[in-house]
Amino acid sequence: MWVLDALESGPASLAQLVRLTGLARPTAHRLAVALERHRMVTRDAQGRFVLGPRLGELSIATGDDRLLAIAQPVLVQLRDLTGESTQLYRRKGDVRVCVAAAERASGLRDTVPVGSELPMTAGSAAQILLAWEDADLIRAGLQSAHFSATTLAQVRRRRWAQSVGEREQGVASTSAAVNGPGGRVVAAVSVSGPIERLTRSPGRLHAQAVLSAAERISEGLRAQEN
Fold it and tell me: SUPFAM superfamilies in the record, alphabetically (predicted)?
């Protein structure tokens, strides 16, 4: 638990884990590697330890995570409304993790399994999860991103994002922000599918539906706070 608690605030090197947990270096390393084997912990591009995808999967299985409990039926409704696959993403360090999804039942679709880690440098969900960060994090995130500061300014203004072939060739998506306590962006709701159906302007087709879904999840979180 000490290692997981330490990683809640973001990525950490082994040296940082030692400092945060107060454990001896060999003990911290042994625990972190053991958690990594069980996918409770993983590594980012810099080799730092970050919380792993298994935690999100367990949250869904146990129903303990309020966000996922609220979001799952909304994702199903959004899938049925748009006819496309839907996902919920959270940021974990340098990646975004798919923590919930509702897949299109048949035909050509964009399948993102729960627990998948995708880059924060491409895709409409990445734009959402970066757009409201502080200025230093935005500047750092844009250094290798497929989108620009102008794109993020547009996202903040209209509150939805779109991408066409950014993350994967032939795939388009539209995303909107889920807001938690204090208005902080805690997740991104997405609709994704082949460009042939979503076109090169996926926001024109699905932005309103995605915005409505994100607002329903945000309202659910606010209701549970009261």
Answer: GAF domain-like, Winged helix' DNA-binding domain
Residue 179 lies in a domain: yes
Measure the CA–CA gap between 91 and 89, rounded to whole angstroms: 7
| CA distances, 61 to each of 37, 68, 82, 100, 217 (Å) | 20, 10, 26, 11, 19
Higher pLDDT, 150 or 2: 150
Are residue 108 and residue 32 in the same domain, yes or no?
no
Domain containing residue 87: CATH number: 3.30.450.40
Q: Who has greater pLDDT, 50 or 124?
A: 124
Q: 175 forms bridges with which residues in the sheet? A: 161, 190
- Grouping H, G, I as helix, E, B as strand and the rest as coil, residue 65 is coil
Q: Concatenated DSSP letters for 143-182?
A: TT-SS-HHHHHHHHHHSEEEEESSSSTTEEEEEEEEE-GG
| Tens of pLDDT, residues 170-190 | 899 999 999 987 788 999 999
Alpha carbon 120 to its chain's center: 9
Print the domain residue range for 145: 63-225
Residue pLDDT, tens place only, 106-121: 666 667 888 888 999 9
User: 41 with 89, same domain?
Assistant: no
Q: Is residue 220 located within the same domain as residue 110? A: yes
